[in-house]
Phosphomannomutase (Saccharopolyspora flava), 449 residues
Amino acid sequence: MRDLSGIVKAYDIRGVVGDGLDADVVREIGAAFTRLVGGPAVVIGHDMRDSSPGLAQAFADGVTGQGVDVINIGLASTDMLYFASGKLELPGAMFTASHNPAKYNGIKLCRAGAAPVGQDSGLSEIQELVAHGVPEFLGAKGATSERDMVAEYSAYLLDLVRLRDIRPLKIVVDAGNGMGGHTVPTVFADLPVELVPMYFELDGSFPNHEANPLDPANIVDLQAKVREVGADAGLAFDGDADRCFVVDERAEPVTPSAITALVASRELAKEPGGTIIHNLITSKAVPEIVTELGGKPVRTRVGHSFIKQTMAETGAIFGGEHSAHYYFRDFWRADSGMLAALHVLAALGEQDKPLSELMADYSRYAASGEINSTVDDQQGRMRAVADAFGDRNGASVDELDGLTVELSDGSWFNLRPSNTEPLLRLNVEARDTEAVTALRDEVLAVIRG
């Protein structure tokens, strides 16, 4: 009986290669996934990690062993795999551990049309099937074919966001030795953009820095290059290039909330009155701006499965998260860092102001960013914070995802427990930096005792 509990996460499969994640396990996962989703074929892509091609092949063996064909798209970003799943109307598997260090790998799975497969939508069934042994298929094996889809992926994105008539821009892109180095050259090839590439060499050992732009230490090189060459903006992609982070012409980071508001405004201009999804940690500027533009903001829990489910239920045209995941109805409700980046370039190039001035309209409040605290008793500390702030005059409290408290002066914070570590994650927003600092320190004093 094989136990996958150590590698099956909430939204994907991920672990250290050789320690619970190896070719034999992946072959069985491929067979179980095929049993779950059926035929006629499964599309498979992989990132640049040394272990990815071998694991992808093992998964393919599991699929074909169940009598189902495989379409191998080879090197791909995660959003390119979602494109393939949507375009071909086939279930898919992407081999990547995103921004995790080199020793990790994993599998992001989706049903036909890029519909997510998470713990509550298929992963638990796959885990159960593997635990009890996937039934042997006695018929003929499936066939394997190869298809390079990067040009089709690029053309599809550039049909959604028109950039041919923008003013010339100089853009620095830090691919972090990840899959942006594979997709950016094709997508940017015919744009009026002077591309300044950084770390485009595909290298799963990440020799320059971790492929995790959410950590400020990993965008230092990008910021220096933007200043050095006098660029109009800088873009940083994570390892599997499904997330994109932006810095302006001063090399100052642009918050994902501001990007969410910008893209929302562009999508609402195309479809007035549309619904926009935002998770509860994005700035309250997002629902304010959406409402001002005549759109309908809808607030969700954190996590792509909640975003995608709510998008499907509401017919939302766009959704954004504080973690720089951006979801598009016209991209099968899947997330694409590249598509968000193209929207930023289009917005910048359609007018003459620098990016810092353009984004000022979408950045109304100061925020703390996510602050982690290690605690022994997550629920006990959460109750202590609720007790400390819930009775304040004018305070409102909700528990949609963790604990969110909004105070009478408009400042707010969210406190969420980690699902995998003994941590509480705090996000604070207020009118200015001083107010953020004061509220942050007050909440942390309760959390940390």
The chain is about 35% helix and 25% strand. The domain at 256-360 is CATH 3.40.120.10 (Alpha-D-Glucose-1,6-Bisphosphate; Chain A, domain 3). The first helix runs from residue 23 to 37.
